[in-house]
């Protein structure tokens, strides 16, 4: 993936079993937990390109969130803030070689940022 590509979409759910059955039946998504990411089943669309995760719904996470791949989260956050965004979640590690953060655009839309590589299968 390249800088600016949408790389992942998280969908907030209150019942993992119900959500897994719903999305796999309705859209044919393959949904499974990946070692190292237990409790966070990941989905893949039939095109084998689109994908994301089913994440627990909670305060501050009530709507689907897209993640955009960037070359540098630090640089992207700085530029976003300069253009009116706010930081909703500071940079956090996913693995030894990948990180994520969340910004809110000037309209309050949450946008996830992703930097690095993962061996999530």
Automatic annotation (TrEMBL):
Identify the residues that the record assigns to the VOC domain, covering every copy: 5-116
Record-level Gene Ontology MF annotations? lyase activity
Q: Name one Pfam family in it.
A: Ble-like_N
What keywords would UniProt list here?
A: Lyase
Q: Which SUPFAM superfamilies match?
A: Glyoxalase/Bleomycin resistance protein/Dihydroxybiphenyl dioxygenase (SSF54593)
Keyword Lyase tagged: yes
Against Gene3D superfamilies, the record matches this protein to: 2,3-Dihydroxybiphenyl 1,2-Dioxygenase, domain 1
The record's InterPro entries line, in alphabetical order, gives: Anthracycline_SecMetBiosynth, Glyas_Bleomycin-R_OHBP_Dase, Glyoxy/Ble-like_N, VOC_core
**What is this protein's name?**
Putative enzyme related to lactoylglutathione lyase
- Name the species this protein comes from: Microbacterium ginsengiterrae
């Amino acid at each position: 993936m390249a800088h600016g590509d949408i790389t992942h979409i998280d969908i907030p759910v209150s019942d993992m079993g119900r959500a897994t059955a719903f999305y796999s039946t309705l859209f044919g998504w393959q949904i499974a937990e990946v070692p190292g990411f237990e409790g966070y089943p990941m989905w893949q669309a039939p095109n084998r390109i689109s994908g994301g995760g089913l994440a627990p719904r909670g305060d501050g996470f009530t709507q689907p969130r897209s993640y955009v791949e960037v070359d540098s989260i630090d640089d992207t956050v700085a530029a976003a803030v300069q253009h009116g965004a706010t930081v909703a979640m500071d940079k956090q590690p996913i693995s030894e070689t990948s990180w994520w953060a969340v910004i809110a655009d000037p309209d309050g839309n949450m946008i996830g940022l992703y930097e690095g590589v993962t061996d999530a299968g």
